[in-house]
Every structure is written in structure tokens, then in C-alpha cells.
Amino acid sequence: MTGLIAAATSASDKRAALRAALTSETITRLPGAINPLTAKLIQNIGFEGVYVSGGAFSAGLGLPDIGLTTLTEVVSHSQHIARVTDLPVLIDADTGFGEPMSAARTVLAAEDGGIAGLHLEDQVNPKRCGHLDGKAIVPTEEMVRRLRAAVTARRDPNFVICARTDAAGIDGIDAAIDRAKAYADAGADLIFTEALHTAADFAAFRSAVDTPLLANMTEFGKSALIPAHTLQDIGYNAVIYPVTTLRLAMGAIETGLREIHERGTQAGLLDRMQTRSRLYEVLEYERYNEFDSGIFDFALGRSQ
Questions:
Q1: For 139-179, how does the pLDDT look when each residue is reduced to its tens digit (9 = 90+)?
Q2: Catalytic residue check, 210
């Protein structure tokens, strides 16, 4: 039964693994999972962690990424993902869903959901996508209160609290560096600077900040798509690919639906589909059958 239905690794062990990874010399790669099945595939392929993007989740609900989702929705969705993988799961918790007390409650809910860590951002609530213009950020002191509430609330010291700043695109890199240092002083374990442009920008940030750093390699945004090994050489500790799997899936879905609409059949699409056998392999279908056989293939003893 180990590893079936739910992951074999405990939430506390996943958190310890993420914290240890952030102080290692190897970058931790966290592709975004749009559902639990994607998380299983991320683990199967050999990545080190899983990310849950607020933008991808809201898009999956048919909503823009402007803070319309709730704490309950985000944690419930993320809990389903964390349940099926032995990898640590880091989630996007937007601005903490309200005031500092709400940020504290967000940490408690994420811990209860088996999640390994989350990031909080310094945008004004409701927020906007980090790679759009027109964002507004709260004063540094307000974000510090948000972070301190989150840090104070956590019960597992290995639960990772990441601070995201959107200041670089508004006030410049120097302002973002100043905020990063203040957020680290407030207890943030990891710093995520949104919308840096070039490898030189990432390197400048690394040289100025001692805290572990996370890079966002999202497509069609303001940042160049820098390979993980380059980010590792620069000194980054983690990298997320937040919306990649959603974009891949939706691109394939749209292409397939258009072909079915025009041709009346999906026959020409079969070579682009995940096969039934591969799906069953990722789901470990055979192990479930073995478990069922072990439960039902038994004989009652004479004393019974």
C-alpha cells in the first residue's frame, strides 16, 4: 500500500527536504503542476519539487490572475497535489489573502494541507500578474508585518516562507534589493524577485543578497528564459516554471479541438496523445491491481 493513493513521504520529511535543498549547491527545479496527475509526472521524470501557480490555478477556473481565488480554494487544490507526490510542493499564496492575520492563517492552512512552503508577495491586494504593467506594491513596512505574521504562525520550522517582491519593475533593482534584505530580516527563508530581465540582473541580485533566491522562468514575460544550469552557476537556489504545463496542455487541447471540429475525428491526433498504457504507468495502475489481489485472494483459517 506504501505510495498508493497517497505519497509515502510524510509532509514533515518533504519540508525538511526542501529546506535542505535550498542550502545545497544544486538548484531545485519546480515545474508547475496544474493537477495531481501532473505532479506525479513531474516526480516520475525526476524533478526535485513541484510548484502550484496562482495564475495557472485561476486560469483553470476560467478567471484572470487578479486575486479572485480564495484561501480555501488554493489550499484545497494544492493539498490534492501534495497528497500524491513524494516531492515538496511550494505554492503561490498571493498576498496572503488579506491582512497580516490572514497571512498567518494561510500558513496554518498550508501546513495542514501537507504543503512544504509558500510565497507571499508585496503587491497591493488585489494583486496582478507579476509580468504585467500597472502593478502597485505596499510599503516595505506593511510587507514586513505580513511576513512576520506568517513566520510567527508556522508550527513546523522547516515550512519554507518565501517573500516575493515586485519592486524591480516599479522602482528598480536597487529598491528590490533593499526590500529583499528587509524581508530576510523579517524571517523570510527564500527571496523571489519578480520580472528581472537578463542574466546580468539575476547575477546583480545574487551578489547583493545573502538569502537563498528563487528565479521565475515563465514564458512570454519580462524575464529571459535562462537555463537552470546557468541560474545555478549564478548562485540561485530554486527555479519555478509556473505556467509551462498549462500552456503546453492548452496549446495541445486547442489544436486537437480545432482538428476534431474541422475533420470530425481525432484519428490524426493519436501520435500526439499520451497513450492509455503510459497513463496507467504514471498512475501505477498495476500496483493497485496487485494490492486488490492481495486483499481479496485469501482463505479463512479453520479457527475463523
A1: 999 999 999 999 999 999 999 999 999 999 899 999 999 99
A2: no
